[in-house]
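[job 0412] stage=complex_fold ligand=magnesium ion status=START
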Amino acid sequence: KGTTREQRALKYLKEHAREGDPDSVLETFDEFCRTQEWAMNAAEEKGDILDEIVRELRPTTCLELGTYCGYSAVRIARQLSPSARLITVEVNPDYAAVAREVVKLAGLQDKIEVINVDSGDVIRELKDKYDVTKLDLVFLDHWKYLYIRDIKLIEEEKLLKKGSVVFADNVIIPGAPGYLEYIRGSKNYNSTFYSVHFEYMDDMKDGVEKSVYIGDE
Ligand SMILES: Oc1cc(-c2ccc(F)cc2)cc2cccnc12
Ligand SMILES: [Mg+2]
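[job 0412] stage=complex_fold status=DONE, emitting C-alpha coordinates
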Protein backbone atom coordinates (compact mmCIF):
# COMPACT_ATOMS: atom_id res chain seq x y z
CA LYS A 1 0.00 0.00 0.00
CA GLY A 2 1.13 3.52 -0.70
CA THR A 3 0.94 4.59 2.93
CA THR A 4 3.81 4.95 5.37
CA ARG A 5 3.80 3.49 8.87
CA GLU A 6 3.40 7.01 10.26
CA GLN A 7 0.36 7.66 8.05
CA ARG A 8 -1.17 4.34 9.16
CA ALA A 9 -0.60 5.32 12.78
CA LEU A 10 -2.29 8.70 12.22
CA LYS A 11 -5.27 6.98 10.55
CA TYR A 12 -5.58 4.64 13.53
CA LEU A 13 -5.47 7.59 15.95
CA LYS A 14 -8.14 9.47 13.98
CA GLU A 15 -10.37 6.38 14.05
CA HIS A 16 -9.81 5.30 17.65
CA ALA A 17 -8.71 8.28 19.81
CA ARG A 18 -11.01 10.80 21.46
CA GLU A 19 -10.51 14.13 19.70
CA GLY A 20 -9.17 16.91 21.97
CA ASP A 21 -8.09 14.39 24.60
CA PRO A 22 -4.28 14.10 24.84
CA ASP A 23 -4.45 11.13 27.25
CA SER A 24 -6.63 9.24 24.76
CA VAL A 25 -4.26 10.06 21.89
CA LEU A 26 -1.28 8.71 23.85
CA GLU A 27 -3.09 5.58 25.06
CA THR A 28 -4.33 4.89 21.55
CA PHE A 29 -0.86 5.42 20.07
CA ASP A 30 0.64 2.98 22.60
CA GLU A 31 -2.10 0.47 21.71
CA PHE A 32 -1.31 0.88 17.99
CA CYS A 33 2.40 0.27 18.63
CA ARG A 34 1.72 -2.81 20.75
CA THR A 35 -0.98 -4.38 18.56
CA GLN A 36 -0.39 -3.13 14.98
CA GLU A 37 3.07 -1.70 14.20
CA TRP A 38 6.07 -0.77 16.36
CA ALA A 39 7.11 2.90 16.19
CA MET A 40 9.95 4.85 17.87
CA ASN A 41 7.82 6.76 20.38
CA ALA A 42 9.14 7.37 23.88
CA ALA A 43 6.29 5.04 25.07
CA GLU A 44 5.05 4.32 28.61
CA GLU A 45 8.18 3.85 30.74
CA LYS A 46 10.25 6.69 29.28
CA GLY A 47 7.03 8.72 29.13
CA ASP A 48 6.41 8.29 32.86
CA ILE A 49 9.88 9.72 33.63
CA LEU A 50 9.21 12.61 31.22
CA ASP A 51 5.84 13.22 32.91
CA GLU A 52 7.53 13.39 36.32
CA ILE A 53 10.17 15.84 35.06
CA VAL A 54 7.51 18.16 33.61
CA ARG A 55 5.32 17.93 36.75
CA GLU A 56 8.27 18.78 39.02
CA LEU A 57 9.90 21.42 36.78
CA ARG A 58 6.72 23.24 35.64
CA PRO A 59 8.61 24.55 32.59
CA THR A 60 7.36 27.59 30.63
CA THR A 61 9.58 27.15 27.55
CA CYS A 62 10.42 23.65 26.26
CA LEU A 63 12.45 22.55 23.25
CA GLU A 64 12.23 19.05 21.76
CA LEU A 65 14.69 17.93 19.09
CA GLY A 66 13.18 15.04 17.15
CA THR A 67 9.37 15.20 16.96
CA TYR A 68 8.71 12.06 14.89
CA CYS A 69 4.90 11.69 15.12
CA GLY A 70 4.46 13.98 18.10
CA TYR A 71 3.97 11.39 20.85
CA SER A 72 6.40 13.00 23.32
CA ALA A 73 5.35 16.51 22.26
CA VAL A 74 1.76 15.64 23.28
CA ARG A 75 3.09 13.94 26.43
CA ILE A 76 4.98 17.09 27.46
CA ALA A 77 2.38 19.67 26.40
CA ARG A 78 -0.59 18.00 28.08
CA GLN A 79 0.98 18.96 31.44
CA LEU A 80 2.09 22.48 30.53
CA SER A 81 0.51 25.50 32.22
CA PRO A 82 -1.73 27.74 30.04
CA SER A 83 1.00 30.21 29.02
CA ALA A 84 3.76 27.60 28.65
CA ARG A 85 4.80 26.29 25.24
CA LEU A 86 6.82 23.63 23.46
CA ILE A 87 8.85 24.14 20.31
CA THR A 88 9.53 20.80 18.65
CA VAL A 89 11.94 20.38 15.73
CA GLU A 90 11.67 17.68 13.07
CA VAL A 91 13.95 17.58 10.00
CA ASN A 92 11.85 14.96 8.13
CA PRO A 93 8.91 16.70 6.36
CA ASP A 94 6.73 13.57 6.29
CA TYR A 95 7.15 13.07 10.05
CA ALA A 96 6.52 16.79 10.68
CA ALA A 97 3.29 16.66 8.66
CA VAL A 98 1.98 13.68 10.66
CA ALA A 99 3.08 15.28 13.94
CA ARG A 100 1.11 18.44 13.19
CA GLU A 101 -2.00 16.29 12.66
CA VAL A 102 -1.42 14.37 15.91
CA VAL A 103 -0.94 17.63 17.83
CA LYS A 104 -4.17 18.98 16.35
CA LEU A 105 -6.05 15.76 17.17
CA ALA A 106 -4.89 16.13 20.79
CA GLY A 107 -6.10 19.75 20.81
CA LEU A 108 -2.65 21.07 21.73
CA GLN A 109 -1.88 23.20 18.69
CA ASP A 110 -1.89 26.37 20.84
CA LYS A 111 0.90 25.00 23.04
CA ILE A 112 3.05 23.15 20.52
CA GLU A 113 4.85 24.57 17.52
CA VAL A 114 6.22 21.93 15.11
CA ILE A 115 9.14 23.31 13.08
CA ASN A 116 10.32 21.36 10.01
CA VAL A 117 14.02 22.28 9.89
CA ASP A 118 17.44 20.92 10.86
CA SER A 119 17.98 21.41 14.59
CA GLY A 120 21.45 22.87 13.96
CA ASP A 121 19.88 25.76 12.06
CA VAL A 122 17.02 26.58 14.41
CA ILE A 123 18.95 26.70 17.73
CA ARG A 124 20.79 29.83 16.62
CA GLU A 125 17.46 31.47 15.69
CA LEU A 126 15.51 30.66 18.88
CA LYS A 127 16.19 34.04 20.53
CA ASP A 128 15.61 36.34 17.58
CA LYS A 129 13.13 34.43 15.45
CA TYR A 130 11.24 32.38 18.06
CA ASP A 131 11.24 34.89 20.91
CA VAL A 132 12.93 32.48 23.32
CA THR A 133 14.98 33.89 26.22
CA LYS A 134 15.75 30.74 28.18
CA LEU A 135 14.90 27.03 27.83
CA ASP A 136 13.55 25.33 30.97
CA LEU A 137 13.39 21.87 29.40
CA VAL A 138 15.24 20.33 26.45
CA PHE A 139 14.32 16.85 25.20
CA LEU A 140 16.97 15.28 22.93
CA ASP A 141 15.36 12.58 20.81
CA HIS A 142 16.71 13.03 17.28
CA TRP A 143 19.71 11.46 15.54
CA LYS A 144 22.18 10.38 18.18
CA TYR A 145 25.36 11.91 16.79
CA LEU A 146 23.58 15.31 16.88
CA TYR A 147 23.09 15.29 20.68
CA ILE A 148 26.61 16.54 21.41
CA ARG A 149 26.57 19.04 18.52
CA ASP A 150 23.26 20.51 19.63
CA ILE A 151 23.91 20.65 23.38
CA LYS A 152 27.07 22.62 22.62
CA LEU A 153 25.08 24.98 20.36
CA ILE A 154 22.49 25.44 23.12
CA GLU A 155 25.28 26.29 25.58
CA GLU A 156 26.93 28.67 23.11
CA GLU A 157 23.59 30.48 22.70
CA LYS A 158 23.35 30.74 26.51
CA LEU A 159 19.84 29.26 26.38
CA LEU A 160 20.09 27.36 29.69
CA LYS A 161 19.72 28.74 33.21
CA LYS A 162 20.30 27.21 36.66
CA GLY A 163 17.78 24.39 37.03
CA SER A 164 17.15 23.86 33.32
CA VAL A 165 16.75 20.16 32.53
CA VAL A 166 18.22 18.37 29.50
CA PHE A 167 16.55 14.97 29.04
CA ALA A 168 18.06 12.57 26.50
CA ASP A 169 16.43 9.47 25.01
CA ASN A 170 18.27 6.41 23.62
CA VAL A 171 21.58 6.83 25.40
CA ILE A 172 21.97 3.01 25.23
CA ILE A 173 20.03 2.03 22.05
CA PRO A 174 21.09 3.29 19.52
CA GLY A 175 23.39 5.17 21.93
CA ALA A 176 24.56 8.76 21.70
CA PRO A 177 28.29 8.65 20.93
CA GLY A 178 30.24 11.18 22.96
CA TYR A 179 27.16 12.73 24.57
CA LEU A 180 27.21 10.77 27.85
CA GLU A 181 30.95 11.38 28.34
CA TYR A 182 30.49 15.06 27.59
CA ILE A 183 27.50 15.73 29.82
CA ARG A 184 28.70 13.55 32.72
CA GLY A 185 32.19 15.06 32.52
CA SER A 186 30.88 18.64 32.54
CA LYS A 187 30.90 20.60 35.81
CA ASN A 188 27.86 22.48 34.54
CA TYR A 189 25.44 19.54 34.92
CA ASN A 190 24.27 17.03 37.50
CA SER A 191 23.29 13.92 35.53
CA THR A 192 21.15 10.92 36.44
CA PHE A 193 20.87 7.73 34.36
CA TYR A 194 17.61 5.74 34.25
CA SER A 195 17.66 2.17 32.98
CA VAL A 196 14.39 1.67 31.07
CA HIS A 197 12.88 -0.73 28.58
CA PHE A 198 13.27 0.15 24.92
CA GLU A 199 9.92 1.42 23.63
CA TYR A 200 7.28 -1.38 23.40
CA MET A 201 9.97 -4.08 23.83
CA ASP A 202 9.69 -5.70 27.28
CA ASP A 203 12.83 -7.77 26.68
CA MET A 204 15.18 -4.95 25.58
CA LYS A 205 16.86 -2.39 27.82
CA ASP A 206 17.57 1.22 26.82
CA GLY A 207 18.58 4.20 28.95
CA VAL A 208 17.62 7.85 29.38
CA GLU A 209 19.77 10.57 30.96
CA LYS A 210 18.40 13.52 32.96
CA SER A 211 20.89 16.38 33.32
CA VAL A 212 20.20 19.46 35.46
CA TYR A 213 22.11 22.57 34.41
CA ILE A 214 23.97 24.17 37.35
CA GLY A 215 26.38 26.26 35.34
CA ASP A 216 26.69 30.02 35.10
CA GLU A 217 23.68 31.81 33.67
O1 LIG B 1 13.83 5.97 20.30
C1 LIG B 1 14.49 5.72 19.11
C2 LIG B 1 14.77 4.42 18.68
C3 LIG B 1 15.44 4.23 17.47
C4 LIG B 1 15.71 2.85 17.03
C5 LIG B 1 15.02 2.33 15.94
C6 LIG B 1 15.24 1.02 15.55
C7 LIG B 1 16.15 0.23 16.23
F1 LIG B 1 16.36 -1.04 15.84
C8 LIG B 1 16.84 0.73 17.31
C9 LIG B 1 16.63 2.04 17.72
C10 LIG B 1 15.81 5.30 16.67
C11 LIG B 1 15.53 6.62 17.10
C12 LIG B 1 15.89 7.73 16.32
C13 LIG B 1 15.57 8.99 16.77
C14 LIG B 1 14.93 9.14 18.00
N1 LIG B 1 14.59 8.09 18.78
C15 LIG B 1 14.86 6.83 18.33
MG1 LIG C 1 13.92 8.04 20.88
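The CA atoms of residues 162 and 216 lie 7 Å apart.
[job 0412] exit 0
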